[in-house]
Design goal:
The longest helix has 88 residues. β4 and β5 form a beta hairpin. Strands 1-2-3-5-4 form a five-stranded mixed beta sheet. α4 runs antiparallel to α5 and α5 packs antiparallel against α6. By secondary structure, it is of the alpha+beta class.
């Protein structure tokens, strides 16, 4: 029978119909054995055959219906639907013939017309179902009349049963339509919510880009433009042989503009940095993260910092903090660990962040993770850290805990000239000339 998973009522009706058919066939069998007679053996055989036919049809029909509605190409779905309709039609024909024979052998089989009404109404088109109900009703009246003689009760009973079945069938169809409409509305609401969320994210990104563009235009761009103009002026002053004072004035103003641009750029970077890193080092931020994780989850998290700290760029410190946040979140949600350790190591040539736990572990080769909504998942972590020139290593095994290691090379310092290096140009003559206010011709 057609039903919708949106409402348990449909499943209840289907199970009720199965139970009704089984109980009525059992009644026919019991009555045939108790009454006896020359038709007892035939009635028992046809009762068992009808029960087997009904059970086989219910099982096979359910499989065909699932095949027809399963996600697949349209051709396979259409073929499955045609096969399902052909099977249902043949199944109903066999059931009807078996019922006619059985009702001629046992008058108690007339009660089976009631579940047949439901099958006709729900499995056949309306133009075929109604005539089928009428024919089945007339057959039940005739069968009852042949066994016990025609009477008012023998006529009214099947008619009332048919009317009740039609009323219940119409109610079922109304429920099915309402469930389908509800499912459609829910799908529309979910799609609308996802669309609103997507547009909200896009609007937020556009607004943030506009804010950053305006900030860069009003501060850094203007400062760079001023630096360019001042350097041009200094270049002209040097070419025209102007005094050193004017040249130094232009250079000093350009230096001040550069300092202002640097300060404004750092301010914008601070706005884009995680709040935990504002006014704090990465070690401080990791310590607060460990304390917060311990307090909220109950899993002890210890933080250790080794080596002599050196200055890291904001993108690198942000990536380290995000990696620690993501790894500890996985420890709390999935690992079932009793402890976790966060170690930040400053070495001669690199900085290393290790997040280690004693949890359930997993097989890294079998994990497929999708970083949705901008979340700093494993895939996103690897991508961002790799883009910054770092590396991520995940070591884990079922039952052996997990260790996530993030590495970044130390910032490269300006190399100090060695005795074997090419000597730097001698600028003492130019500096002396500038101090004397002259030019070197």
């Amino acid at each position: 029978m057609k039903h919708s998973a949106l409402s348990p009522v449909f499943t209840g009706l289907q199970l009720g119909l199965h139970g009704l058919v089984t109980a009525l066939i059992a009644l026919v069998i019991v009555r045939s054995v108790s009454v006896g007679g020359p038709t007892m053996s035939a009635a028992l055989v046809f009762a068992v055959v009808m029960l087997a036919t009904y059970t086989a049809g219910a099982v096979v029909g359910g499989r065909l219906r699932r095949t027809a509605t399963a996600p697949s190409d349209h051709g396979a779905a259409a073929t499955g639907a045609r096969r399902g309709r052909s099977f249902v039609l043949a199944w109903l024909v066999f059931l009807s013939v078996e019922w006619v024979v059985l009702v001629l052998l046992s008058p108690d089989a007339a009660y089976l017309v009631f579940p047949l009404f439901f099958l006709y109404l729900h499995l056949l088109p309306r133009a075929v179902a109604v005539p089928a109900v009428v024919i089945a009703t007339l057959s039940a009246i005739v069968a009852i009349g042949l066994h016990a003689g025609f009477s008012v009760g023998g006529v009214v009973g099947p008619l009332v049963g048919a009317a009740v079945a039609v009323a219940i069938g119409l109610g079922y169809e109304a429920l099915a339509r309402e469930a389908a409409e509800r499912e459609r509305l829910i799908a529309d609401l979910v799609a609308a919510r996802e669309e609103l969320a997507r547009r909200g994210q896009e609007a937020g990104k556009l607004a943030e880009r506009e804010r950053l563009a305006a900030g860069l235009h009003d501060t850094v761009a203007q400062a760079l433009s001023s630096i360019q103009l001042l350097l041009h002026a200094a270049e002209r002053s040097a070419g025209e042989g102007s005094g050193t004072g004017q040249l130094r004035s232009h250079i000093g103003l350009a230096r001040d503009a550069a300092a202002t641009a640097l300060a404004e750029t750092r301010s914008l970077i601070d706005e884009l940095s995680p709040p935990a890193l504002v006014g704090a080092t990465i070690a401080d931020a990791l310590g607060r993260l460990a304390e917060t994780t311990t307090a909220e989850s109950g899993t002890p998290v210890a933080t250790t910092v080794t080596g002599d700290a050196f200055v890291l760029g904001t993108p690198v410190t942000t990536a380290l903090l995000r990696a620690a946040q993501s790894s500890l979140a996985n420890v709390v949600r999935h690992a079932g660990a009793t402890r976790a350790d966060v170690t930040l190591s400053y070495l001669d040539g690199e900085v290393i962040l290790d997040i280690d736990d004693d949890g359930a572990g997993f097989d890294p080769a079998t994990v497929v993770e999708r970083a949705a909504g901008g979340s700093f998942g494993m895939v996103s972590m690897r991508r961002r850290i790799t883009e910054l020139g770092g590396a991520v290593d995940v070591r884990s095994a079922p039952g052996a805990g997990t260790t996530v290691t993030v590495r970044f090379a130390a910032p490269t310092a300006t190399p100090t000239p060695t005795p074997d290096s090419t000597p730097a140009p001698d600028t003492s003559r130019e500096e002396a000339t500038m101090r004397d206010g002259g030019t070197d011709a």
